[in-house]
């Protein structure tokens, strides 16, 4: 009987210490590409925009975002807007983005398309962070002087309809 009692206590302690891991299951989280939907466009030859649509209840870390362009696009540093500042228990003082993030990668064009290696990391408000993500994107760059794929005329119509 004493042996059974010790095993029961050990089992209860094991459950108590592992309970936080059960609080959020993988089924409760969105797939990473839905939580942080990433797209890139080149509205002008010397500028690429990266856009993350961030699902409700999720956020991206500013300091965990980086982009590397292939040599055909002599890029300058990625331009990120200021995020929401707060103190993170793991990273200290950080900036985060919710709902949407638009970043700009300026550079000089040497080809009709550019390959980008994008790294980023985000978390769910439920207390779970995704591992750092890496995506490679191919972006078509408009010819110099030509409108980008989403360029707008001053009247608010696409430039190619003018």
Show unreliable segments.
1-22, 147-162
Broad structural category: alpha+beta
Span of the ends, CA to CA: 87 Å
- Just give the CATH class: Mainly Beta
CATH superfamily: Thiol:disulfide interchange protein DsbD, N-terminal domain
The topology string of helices and strands comes to: HHEEEEEEEEEEEE
Strand content: 35-45%
Biggest sheet record: 5 strands, antiparallel
Strand order of the largest sheet: 6-7-3-10-11
If you compute it from the alpha carbons, what radius of gyration comes out, rounded to the nearest whole angstrom? 22 Å
Number of structural domains? 1
Key structural traits:
single chain, 162 residues, alpha+beta, Immunoglobulin-like, 4-stranded antiparallel beta sheet, 2 helices, 15% helix, 43% strand, disordered C terminus
Task: Give structural notes.
The structure is a single chain. With 162 residues, this protein is an alpha+beta fold. Helix content is 15%, strand content 43%. The protein is built from 2 helices and 12 strands. The protein is elongated and about 50 Å long.
């Amino acid at each position: 009987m004493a042996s059974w009692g010790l095993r029961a206590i050990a089992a209860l302690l094991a459950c108590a210490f592992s309970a936080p891991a059960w609080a959020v299951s993988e089924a409760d989280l969105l797939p990473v590409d839905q939580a942080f939907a990433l797209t890139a466009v080149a509205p002008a030859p010397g500028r690429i925009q990266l856009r993350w649509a961030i699902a409700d209840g999720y956020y991206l870390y500013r300091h965990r975002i980086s982009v590397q362009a292939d040599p055909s696009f002599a890029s300058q540093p990625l331009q990120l807007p200021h995020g929401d500042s707060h103190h993170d228990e793991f990273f200290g003082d950080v900036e985060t983005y919710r709902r949407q993030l638009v970043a700009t990668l300026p550079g000089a064009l040497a080809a009709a398309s550019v390959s980008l290696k994008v790294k980023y990391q985000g978390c769910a408000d439920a207390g779970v962070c995704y591992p750092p993500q890496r995506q490679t994107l191919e972006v078509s760059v408009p010819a110099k002087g030509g409108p980008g794929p989403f360029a707008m005329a001053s009247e608010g119509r696409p430039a190619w309809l003018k």
